[in-house]
Amino acid sequence: MAISQENVKLIFGLKVRQLRLEKGLSFAQLSKQTGLSASYLNEIEKGKKYPKIEKINKLSETLEVSFDDLVSLQLSKKLAPLGELLQSNLFKELPLELFGIEPAHLLDLLSNAPAKLGAFLSTLIEISRNYGLRVESLYLNMLRSFQEMHDNYFESIEEAVETFRTQFFNDISYPYTFQQFQEILSSEFNYQVLPNGLEHQQELKPLRSMTIPGDAPQLLMNPKLTESQKLFTMAKELGYHNLSLSPRPFTSSWISVNSFEEVLNNYKASYFACALALPEKAIVEDLKNFLSEPKFNPNLLLDILETYQCTPEMLMHRMTNLLPKVFGIKELFFLRFSTSNEETFKLTKEMHLSGLHNPHGTALDQHYCRRWASIEILKELRSQAGDGQDKVKCKVQRSQYVNSDNEYLIISLAKPSNKNIGQNSSVSIGLLITPAMKRKVKFYSDPVIPIRIVNETCETCPLYDCQERAAPAHIYEQKQQLNAMKKAVELLTHQ
């Protein structure tokens, strides 16, 4: 596998550092013997500088190693795991700097315990194989971590949206229209917008849209899209251009994921689209009215969808932007579930702020708790299928977790999917009930809100009398059996 020039410098720096330490030389001592400045040697070891031939000769003579061995990409046996890590181009694919990590610093830390590192890396690789982890899953997990680091609020994008709004919509009230977005895409970016562009593409029926790039880009849409879905699709294209985002995906759903930067740019364009559709100042006032009601009023949320012509997911995402920033409600999660039948519910998107909340998507091949509002609302959608009701449903619940003090207020929205465009899905926001949350959400104690005892999955749940159970509690039973064995062993060894 070809190795990048950056990683060549990192490998060279690792070798110089290892040889210097083996000889017990400080930077000052090595500087004196080679004639190279201590700061320059430090830059070499950090992988930031790669010396010219004459300087490499001085290093090889002082460190008593041949020129060829010093410039070789082969590392010593102790550092071999690091070499494999670098040759995998992991540091090129993962944006460590985005999280405040310099690759050289990470390698420095890892190289201090190379034997343990080798076992650690092997374990990670084995886990990833056993659990079917793919690189795109890693990128999406990193995106969630990035969102959580910033409380899912990005001032620079908010400012870019308002500048754009002033330029193109200064005297125009929302909701904006298909024709307005189409005009901007056409006149400013030379787009051809084709609302029925995917109509005869049988293989692309699951997609909402795709973009064909070029000097005159084409935006092809699925004719089954609702008006709000069309508006989001076009607003997202405007986001890509306004924020100068590249690289980017060209399909609405992920067909392949090429880099973390592509995943991040897709998120930024979506953020732009939601912020454009739901202006911060206006939606904050609407949310204040909603949260200050003493009784839960779902119509206030549904009215927001109508007022701004946005999808349920757009509204929920906007709430995750603004609840932490404006209302101080930082302990929350967002979930999106999809289903195509009565038995299978798939967690297709999640985000957690201020820690990993229940529920979360770590339950491989297990059955998520059927008492969750996110799943109950999907079951209700299916039961009314075919009766002509295609309006958005809203459901609220207080969820108390088994063997936990955590209690969440869950608000879920769902609407039947358009035929031939994916599955039914629900989106939910969960707010951890804390003193701060109680001060802002006046209806949290509304007696009409059902309180349900819930758990993560059926397989881990001790509630044997649960009428909604979808699978035996075999993982819970195994854990109980193991705990009983541990107690028996402890009793015998302390007699």
UniProtKB/TrEMBL annotation:
<dbReference type="InterPro" id="IPR050807">
    <property type="entry name" value="TransReg_Diox_bact_type"/>
</dbReference>
<dbReference type="GO" id="GO:0003700">
    <property type="term" value="F:DNA-binding transcription factor activity"/>
</dbReference>
<keyword id="KW-0238">DNA-binding</keyword>
<dbReference type="Pfam" id="PF01381">
    <property type="entry name" value="HTH_3"/>
</dbReference>
<dbReference type="InterPro" id="IPR010359">
    <property type="entry name" value="IrrE_HExxH"/>
</dbReference>
<dbReference type="InterPro" id="IPR010982">
    <property type="entry name" value="Lambda_DNA-bd_dom_sf"/>
</dbReference>
<feature type="domain" description="HTH cro/C1-type">
    <location>
        <begin position="16"/>
        <end position="70"/>
    </location>
</feature>
<protein>
    <submittedName>
        <fullName>XRE family transcriptional regulator</fullName>
    </submittedName>
</protein>
<comment type="similarity">
    <text>Belongs to the short-chain fatty acyl-CoA assimilation regulator (ScfR) family.</text>
</comment>
<dbReference type="Pfam" id="PF06114">
    <property type="entry name" value="Peptidase_M78"/>
</dbReference>
<dbReference type="GO" id="GO:0003677">
    <property type="term" value="F:DNA binding"/>
</dbReference>
<dbReference type="InterPro" id="IPR001387">
    <property type="entry name" value="Cro/C1-type_HTH"/>
</dbReference>
<dbReference type="GO" id="GO:0005829">
    <property type="term" value="C:cytosol"/>
</dbReference>
